[in-house]
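User: What would this chain look like folded?
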Amino acid sequence: MKELLIENYIKQALLEDMPYGDITTDNLIDSGQISKGYLLAKESGVIAGISIFKQVFHTIDNSVLFRDYIHDGMKVNKGDILLEIEGKTKSILKGERLALNILQRMSGIATLTHQFVKQVKGYQVRIVDTRKTTPNFRIFEKEAVKLGGGYNHRFNLSDAVMLKDNHIEASGGIKAAVEKIRQHVPHTTKIEVEVENLEMLKEALEVKADIIMLDNMSLELMTEAVQINNHQAILEASGNMSLERVSDVAKCGVDIISVGALTHSYRSLDISLRFKL
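Assistant: Here's the prediction, encoded as structure tokens.
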């Protein structure tokens, strides 16, 4: 299914980019012309999306050839050549922008994720993403998080129960919300509850929530929450996570740190495709 989603995305993106062909390339380049090129890292980072990069070109023309020098999840330095490409000039020009867009964005996410993971090295904690993703690009963004050394939170609203502030408010409290949702979901489905203070934490523990999200809590409150929890539920820290703060959050003893910035505040990695003369 994942492969079908990726294939469908690439086709839709190509249709968006050239719904009636490429007016420049189609009227400038001869059909039989062949070109060679290379993919250049213009800054250091973690590469993610090489396989998708190649799939873009193969969707246009499966005769395009590649020679790989790196693989997904690998760290590269400025000036490194990532791969070489050879094929019909028309095919390469038509796929270049889309392929680079995906690769640059995924590599930016992987690089940022790697930086967060480095900050919590030595602690028994996972850095995870959120649903704060680009619409219709989530499958790529979450894959990039994994390639950067992080982990995925739920992929979509169908994956797991998460009772956030508005769910709780609309249901009349944590106890009422958890008891009602348990009547409707399979016993195999975990229930996560978002809490903002220690009283809410205690209520979530009383109804045996599987996962408790500590939302925008201070370091002091998180430390106390860990002690109160005493390994009863999985504790997830969320809100206002930065590279400067994340190691202090890890020291509190939480199990999970969710970071929305991984997929909404990353900077694309600078990578370019250049033709060989």
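The chain has two domains: 2-116+266-275, 121-264. If you want, I can go into more detail on any region.
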